[in-house]
Design a protein that fits this description.
Pathway: Cell wall biogenesis; peptidoglycan biosynthesis. Keywords: Cell cycle, Cell division, Cell shape, Cell wall biogenesis/degradation, Cytoplasm, Peptidoglycan synthesis, Pyruvate, Transferase. Pfam families: EPSP_synthase (PF00275). Its EC number is 2.5.1.7. The protein is about 30% helix and about 25% strand. The two termini are about 15 Å apart. The protein has 2 domains: about 220 residues, Alpha-beta prism (UDP-n-acetylglucosamine1-carboxyvinyl-transferase, Chain); about 210 residues, UDP-n-acetylglucosamine1-carboxyvinyl-transferase, Chain (Alpha-beta prism), CATH 3.65.10. The strands form 7 sheets. It has a 5-stranded mixed β-sheet. Strands 24-25-3-26 form a 4-stranded mixed β-sheet. A 4-stranded mixed β-sheet has the order 4-16-18-17, covered by helices on one side. By secondary structure, it is an alpha+beta fold. The protein is built from 12 helices and 26 strands. Helix 4 runs parallel beside helix 5 and helix 7 runs parallel beside helix 9. Bound molecules: uridine-diphosphate-N-acetylglucosamine (UD1) and phosphoenolpyruvate. Phosphoenolpyruvate (PEP) binds next to helix 11. Uridine-diphosphate-N-acetylglucosamine binds next to helix 4 and helix 5.
């Protein structure tokens, strides 16, 4: 077992299908926020742009998405050693092929970030279609725009996308703020011949982490203001690097909300406060004052003002505001507010599927329409059997199971383990009893 998850003979983590959770549990103890999924998995893509050694520390080694990304890279020829105890990843290149990844059976989102590594070595890349959580439209046209703007040809074949040619510098003008598009443009521009300009780049903390790693690998990247990037491409591979993965701001918020809602007592370490100002302001506004130093939050029932959680309205959109991946945790908070709250999601208006599952615990508490969830707080919940609709929705129902009385069952809980590294190990450490059913 690795921290509550089983390990196969190839030292890979096997994820549980169902969780059985007794209700009325509150976490007590210390929990450390892991390296961010939305940073680690793209730093791994940057690591594939060199034949020299790369070491990634604080890497969320037990995440579902990390496991699949590591498998993809091994399948095309990279040698990767994973140390689950120290959370380090050692990666070195070799003969990198552009094989079709025919054993692809898991819909991770960022397959497009594997293109740059294959093009720069072989002039052709074959990647599985991008997947990701079912939270509404998740197009990939902006990735095609990147590859074509840098001079490559793109074919959408029945089982995979084929990109061919050589990357030459070019101008990319994104019509909307796109995290993945900006990351893809950075990776491709770094190995292209010539200068690449990105207009309307979306520079989130995780994108800044990627820029920082690429710079350490020798890429010349100039950022002007909030959204203009210029890259002097290296016309080939980059150098090796040793880089830590930044802590996960969504995980940090999740632990804070869980401790507040269950009346737990949790010391949360490695909280990236600098990237969470506005999300935390909304908590304060709702009546939650957290005890903190510069990197840890200490949550006890005293963090809640005597008036309890106040009803609120929050709009989820782009950083530095509350991002859509945090949306379900404000909905959960609103469950405990005395009155009606509204949570809007402008980024993924269709990220409302999980609300029907949450309603199994709190019947009659929600009404939702595209882009807006209305929550009637203060209702008494009950145990339920709920499905996992998406990563954050799965975590929300796991939390609801702890908050309500009785035994609940959460199906397809591996979805939550896409974004919460070693979740079961961490819950066990803070005294939360969860039975994991495999197979
Ligand atoms: C792995 C990762 O980092 N995922 C995050 C990333 O997703 P991801 O990188 O997929 O999200 P984007 O920022 O690219 O998407 C923003 C919007 O653009 C649209 N779009 C995107 C690409 C494209 O080719 N065409 C297109 O139309 C999307 O459908 C969405 O409506 O940012 C999202 C917020 O922005 C987060 O919720 C995801 O957790
Ligand atoms: C939607 C998410 O991730 P992805 O883009 O990887 O599906 C998420 O992290 O909530």
């Amino acid at each position: 077992m690795i921290g509550g998850s089983k390990v196969s003979s190839h030292s890979e983590v096997i994820f549980p299908k169902t969780l059985k959770i007794p209700g009325g549990q509150a976490p007590k103890g210390v929990v450390r926020v892991s390296g961010a999924k939305n940073s680690g998995t793209r730093l791994l893509a940057a690591a594939s742009l060199t034949d020299e050694n790369v070491v990634l520390t604080n890497f969320p080694t037990k995440l579902v998405d990390a496991q699949h990304k590591i498998r993809f890279l091994r399948e095309v020829g990279f040698s990767i050693d994973v140390d689950y105890e120290t959370e380090e990843l050692h990666l070195s290149g070799g003969v990198i092929t552009s094989e079709v990844l025919d054993s692809y059976d898991y819909p991770i989102r960022t397959t497009y970030l594997l293109v740059a590594a294959q093009i720069v070595r072989n002039g052709v890349a074959k990647i599985p279609y991008p997947g990701g959580c079912k939270i509404g439209s998740r197009g990939y046209d902006l990735h095609i725009l990147v590859w074509e703007a840098l001079g490559c040809e793109v074919k959408e074949l029945p089982d995979y996308i084929e990109v061919s040619g050589e990357f030459m510098g070019g101008t990319i003008d994104f019509p909307i703020s796109t995290v993945g598009g900006t990351e893809n443009a950075l990776l491709c521009g770094a190995v292209a011949a010539g200068t690449t300009v990105i207009h309307n780049a979306y520079i989130t903390p995780e994108v800044s982490d990627l820029i920082s790693m690429l710079r350490h690998m020798g890429a010349e990247i100039k950022v002007t203001g909030n959204s203009y990037i210029e890259i002097q491409g290296k016309s080939g591979l980059l150098s090796g690097v040793h880089m830590p993965v930044m802590p996960d701001r969504i995980e940090a918020l999740t632990w804070i909300v869980l401790a507040i809602l269950t009346g737990g007592e949790l010391l949360i370490e490695d909280v990236p406060f600098e990237h969470m100002e506005i999300p935390l302001l909304h908590l304060k506004d709702a009546g939650i004052d957290i005890f903190r130093n510069s990197t840890s939050a200490y949550i006890t029932p005293d963090c809640l003002r005597s008036t309890g959680i106040q009803p609120f309205e929050v709009a989820c959109g782009t950083h530095p505001g509350v991002i859509s991946d945090m949306q379900p945790f404000y909905v959960l908070l609103a469950m405990n507010a005395m009155g009606i709250s509204r949570v809007y999601d402008y980024r993924y208006p269709k990220r409302i599927g999980y609300v029907d599952e949450l309603a199994k615990f709190y019947p009659g508490a929600f009404s939702s329409e595209e882009g807006c969830i209305t929550i009637k707080g203060g209702m008494r919940g009950k145990a339920a059997t709920a499905e996992s609709t998406d990563l954050r929705g799965s975590m929300a129902v796991i939390m609801a199971a702890m908050m309500t009385e009785g035994d609940s069952t959460i199906n397809d809980a591996h979805m939550a383990l896409r974004g919460y590294n070693d979740l079961l190990g961490k819950l066990e450490k803070v005294g939360i009893n969860v039975e994991a059913v495999y197979g």
